[in-house]
Design a protein that fits this description.
- The chain is of the alpha+beta class and 601 residues long.
- It has five domains: 91 residues, no CATH class; 99 residues, PAS domain (Beta-Lactamase), CATH 3.30.450; 100 residues, Beta-Lactamase; 85 residues, Helix Hairpins (Orthogonal Bundle); 168 residues, 2-Layer Sandwich (Heat Shock Protein 90).
- It has 14 helices and 20 strands.
- The strands form five sheets. The chain has a five-stranded antiparallel β-sheet with strand order 5-4-8-7-6, sandwiched between helices. Strands 10-9-13-12-11 form a five-stranded antiparallel β-sheet, with helices on both faces.
- The protein is elongated, with a radius of gyration of 58 Å.
- Bound molecules: adenosine-5'-diphosphate.
């Protein structure tokens, strides 16, 4: 066999695939990693033994010789070579499968979507379970789909691919993917181009940032709400730096004072205050604020751009870091100009009212005095006349004298009550407290109205319910109160009616005096006006004498004595007025006296 032919055959033979080896009868070596064997081939009529080395189903060497020793040596070399090769292959295979295993572990357990797609058409060649989960695709069905189908905005893909082609790498690019249900999924997209199976592929990692986006949106919304609140709250808000320069102010602040933002930012807060407040803020206000970290309701005057000065109350809080360094501040300014004006007007009105009231009391008191002196003289001479007549005067004259005395008496009562009311209103009432047996006072009052009750056949009863405890209060005023209620019960009663004083012990301990009559009662629609001075609830022109001030005085006195006072009444059935006192004997306080006076005003 000539050498060239053999060489050609050798070349050919090394490329012979396993199928050809089988043809040569090497069935025993098929499937083995390494094998060698002899075959006889006929070359130009001569039978020649051929040694073939086969590894992984491929003929790797080929030796033709008749020299069997050479063949044996060669066989040894071949064996060693093949063994080394097999070891190498085994080692590489192990390395490969180890790195494959590592990749698989990383990819399968990663919370991020990891996938491989072909650059040419976007065909997905690999996608880890997180990819399916993230996009809502049934697990294991990602491979075979096209990457571009998962872009929420398909036009985003082209520029990405262009950048990838240019740089080979994209990191943390924020894009929107599309889930299977069509909803958008914000992600960070990273990719690198690399060969895979001889073709360029994208190795992609996608991080789901939907939760971060939601949190960002919530933060943005709360910030915008806060900004809106800061700007639109109808009080002035501002922040100053440690040197007093304004670093932030609300829209309302600007609108209220009439400035534009660029006229304010960087200026000192004192630039917007009147001279007095400016001096205070510089010397005391701001230094104290920096020291204490808080100010509340500091009265300051701010000057509007139009020159108008407003009264305000400023409260502020300072923020420092852990080391005590100044971080910022927030001041809240309330415009109290209107309140101040109202307050001033009120003070003025009160002063005027007090002057007027004092003048009125003064007038009433002097008029009452002036009236009482001649009136007492009239009554005195009237009584003398009555005594002197001795039956000599005609019936007509006697009736005239009685009229003079009755009308004079009524007038005196009216003057006395007006004087008393004016004294209460002027706060000129003084109390004299004593501890006494109320039952005796009740009896005295009963005696005083007995005559009138008898005239109208009205039964008077005192129901003490056993021995009454002593009470401590102003005895004269107590008598005046009971007498007024009792005489009203008799006056506004029908013939044959009754008035009962019912004493009731209550928790506290307290003692209540109920003056119950079976008289005319007070219609519901008139009850509101019961305590109005001079209002006699329509009885002005009737026969029953009165001034319409008794209950007004009684109510004020009860308040001054720190007692409770009230009534219940039903037209045509009767009324119950009650006055209740504490038995703990607390002396009426100065406040109570003031309260009585205030309600009298
Ligand atoms: P006066 O009795 O002098 O008119 P008062 O202030 O004591 O003044 O009473 C005011 C009005 O209340 C009376 O005019 C009367 O119309 C009504 N009034 C007071 N007490 C009673 C009562 N016990 N029953 C019915 N009406 C009463």
């Amino acid at each position: 066999m000539d050498y060239h032919k053999f060489k050609n055959l050798f070349k050919f033979a090394t490329m012979v695939p396993i199928g050809l080896a089988l043809l040569f009868g090497l069935t025993s070596v098929v499937g083995q990693t390494l094998a060698e064997g002899f075959v006889n081939i006929r070359v130009q009529g001569v039978l020649m033994p051929i040694l073939m080395g086969i590894s992984s189903g491929t003929i790797i060497s080929f030796l033709v010789t008749r020299n069997r020793r050479l063949l044996a040596g060669q066989l040894e070399i071949e064996r060693n070579l093949a063994q080394n090769l097999a070891d190498l292959v085994a080692e590489r295979t192990a390395q490969l499968s180890e790195s494959e295993e590592k990749f698989r572990l990383i990819a399968e357990t990663s919370p991020n979507a990891i996938s491989i797609s072909r650059v040419s058409d976007g065909l997905l060649r690999y996608a880890n379970p997180a990819s399916s989960k993230m996009l809502g695709v049934e697990n294991g069905t990602m491979v075979g789909r096209r990457a571009q189908d998962f872009y929420f905005n398909p036009e985003e893909r082209a520029p990405l691919m262009a950048r990838l082609q240019e740089t080979g790498l994209i990191q943390n690019n924020e894009i929107l993917l599309k889930k299977v249900d069509g909803s958008p999924l914000p992600v960070l997209f990273s990719a690198a181009v690399a060969d895979f199976g001889g073709e360029p592929h994208l190795f992609i990692e996608v991080i789901d940032i939907s939760e971060r986006k939601l949190a960002e949106a919530a933060l943005a919304e709360s910030e915008s709400r806060h900004r809106k609140l800061y700007n639109e709250t109808p009080v002035m808000l501002h922040s100053i730096a440690a040197d007093g320069t304004i670093t932030r102010e609300s829209d309302f602040w600007l609108a209220h004072l009439g400035y534009d933002r660029d006229e304010v930012i960087g200026k000192s807060i004192t630039d917007f205050q009147d001279e007095q407040s400016k001096e205070y803020s510089r010397n005391d206000g701001i230094p104290q604020f920096l020291e204490n970290g808080v100010r509340s309701n500091v009265p300051l005057r701010f000057v509007k751009k139009n020159g108008e000065v407003i009264d305000t109350l400023l409260s502020a809080l300072l923020e420092r870091d852990e080391d005590g360094n100044f971080l910022g501040s927030l001041s809240v300014i309330l415009d109290i100009t209107a309140q101040k004006q109202t307050e001033a007007a009120l003070v003025e009105a009160e002063a005027t009212a007090q002057q007027a009231s004092a003048a009125k009391s003064e007038f009433l008191s002097s008029v009452s005095h002036e009236l009482r002196t001649p009136l007492n003289a009239i009554l005195g001479f009237g009584q003398l006349l009555e005594l002197d007549m001795d039956g000599e005067a005609s019936e007509e004259h006697q009736s005239h004298v009685r009229h003079i005395l009755e009308s004079g008496g009524h007038l005196l009562q009216l003057i006395n009550q007006v004087l008393e009311l004016s004294q209460i209103e002027a706060g000129k009432i003084s109390l004299s407290l004593e501890t006494f047996d109320p039952e005796r006072v009740l009896e005295e009052c009963k005696d005083m109205v007995q005559e009138r009750a008898r005239e109208n056949q009205i039964a008077l009863t005192i129901n003490t319910g056993g021995k009454l405890p002593f009470i401590t209060t102003d005895k004269l005023r107590f008598r005046q109160i009971i007498l007024n209620l009792l005489s009203n019960g008799v006056k506004y009663n029908r013939t044959g009616g009754s008035v009962t004083i019912n004493c009731e012990r209550k928790a506290g301990p307290r003692l209540r005096f109920n003056i119950i009559d079976t008289g005319f009662g007070i219609p519901k629609d008139k009850q509101d006006a019961l305590f109005e001075p001079f209002n006699r609830l329509g009885r002005e022109s009737g026969e029953i004498d009165g001034t319409g001030i008794g209950l007004t005085i009684t109510a004020h006195l009860m308040e001054i004595l720190d007692g409770d006072f009230g009534f219940e009444s039903e037209e045509d059935k009767g009324s119950t007025f009650w006055a209740e006192f504490s038995l703990d004997a607390p002396a009426p306080t100065a406040e109570a006296v003031d309260a009585g006076r205030a309600s009298a005003d």
